[in-house]
């Protein structure tokens, strides 16, 4: 379905039909003193030529650095066909169509996206997407409180190894709705949540346990034992996962004896370029038992009156336009354009392509860790297995080194000292299939030189 | 014309209440309510042990066109939700006053006598006033 703006004649015809002279009159009920005449702090509008030039200059200021930062957003190769197809006029709208069923192509795409996410995560049903991984995690916590009817406490156990931004967003979103987030400690030698540390919660009323795999440090948690512990105590399991990793790791639907109950994650690695933090998209999947507690839109496949297969929005009684204040969530949309890109990315890669991408990225990360830990004063922080990113500990402050590296065109990773001061001079580094041996060697050589110079000074 | 059994109590939001021999009560939605909702596709009933205040939303009935909350007609503790409805929600359509009951409740002290429930005749007047 094409997206064509209204002509002046269309607008005039619509106004005449409802007997209104001007569009402005539709806003008459807003008192004049409540209307904002001009928005302070916003610059004058720019035309397409001007904005194009401004953005080109800003992009040039960023340069084209060699990036070894992961920490939740990952640089992967995106086949050229992904965005060539995504930006076709038929797809190029960022929004859910209001007359959803008139856009069968869009609905089919979302249905296929849901199917791919369900298969990738090993879950029974997925929704049409969320805003990003962090807000999807917050929504999963709210959903767990609705779904776990045996628990009255709204207490959510959150490992310290969860992405710190995700925890902050979850608290911001859900703390005022009565949810209580309690942090689980991690083992500073292994970088994971010790299953034994959960014993202190035995016998308490806990609603859900969040498990990020791989965790923020890139380390692999003992997801089977954590999941089984939770289920033995009538606690729901919220899995937070990197979709690329699922091509190699066990999907959440198979964690422990019964599998995770809700799975969420950041979808950016699936065909969405790094872009100053977004827009990205989140995904969410669950068991059929809990589908009515799931937020967001869901597309279903059905038959029309003539018996032809078609697609429709379904289970809408969960949503705001029907349930009003008692809806499962205030999300009533999805990240349409980015989901389009992700669906095309996944269909072009296929399961084998995604597995090769994951394996290649991990091989580069191992090469990076091996290279950087050859530099005197650098060692691997944790003993646990990791997936395509890892924490290094240095013998001196990380921030000045990162600044010097940046001036040489290398983004060397994320300084963890502000997030995890107990780890000392810690640096989270990542490599994907986009990095070559020469890139890694360049980083190693530059870091070695800088650390040597710092030691001599 | 809706079926309004004479031996039950009702409230204006279209729930019915039946007093059982053991002093607990059975609660459901009326024939008028199930008819207005249409074919039910999902019913959510409360867990046993949940303590309800009168007027509190305690169950959800979802049809192909709408979802409605069911309100507790009186205060009490839930002794059972109808387990059959998770797999056969249409039972509420076919037998709203029998197999389609939603929950059983042990009324809080004085709740049954204190609740302003309607007789069948008075509930019929409510329906007549609504044009039903």
Written overview of the protein:
The complex is a heterodimer of chains A (457) and B (132). Chain A contains 11 helices and 15 strands. Chain A has 457 residues and is α/β, with parallel strands linked by helices. Chain B is an alpha+beta fold. Chain B has one domain (9-113): RNA polymerase II/Efflux pump adaptor protein, barrel-sandwich hybrid domain (OB fold (Dihydrolipoamide Acetyltransferase, E2P), Beta Barrel), CATH 2.40.50. Chain B has 4 helices and 9 strands, in the order βββαβββββαβαα. The longest helix of chain B has 11 residues, at 120-130.
Largest sheet of chain A: 7 strands, mixed
Global outline of chain B: globular
DSSP summary, beta strand count of chain B: 9
Radius of gyration of chain B, Cα only, in angstroms? 14 Å
The top level CATH class name of chain B: Mainly Beta
CATH architecture annotation of the largest domain in chain A? 3-Layer(aba) Sandwich
Total strands of chain A: 15
| SSE pattern of chain A | HHEHHEHEHEEHEEEEEHHEEHEEEH
Main sheet properties of chain B: 6 strands, antiparallel
The CATH topology assignment of chain B is OB fold (Dihydrolipoamide Acetyltransferase, E2P)
What assembly state would you assign to the polypeptide chains in this entry?
heterodimer
Strand order of the largest sheet of chain A: 2-8-7-6-5-3-4
Low-confidence stretches of chain B: none
User: How far from one another are the termini of chain A?
Assistant: 65 Å
* The level-1 CATH class of the largest domain in chain A: Alpha Beta
Strand content of chain A: 5-15%
Q: Could you report the average pLDDT of chain B, rounded to the nearest whole number?
A: 92
Task: Indicate the CATH topology of the largest domain in chain A.
Answer: Aspartate Aminotransferase, domain 2
Structural class of chain B: alpha+beta
* Percent of residues in beta strands of chain B: 25-35%
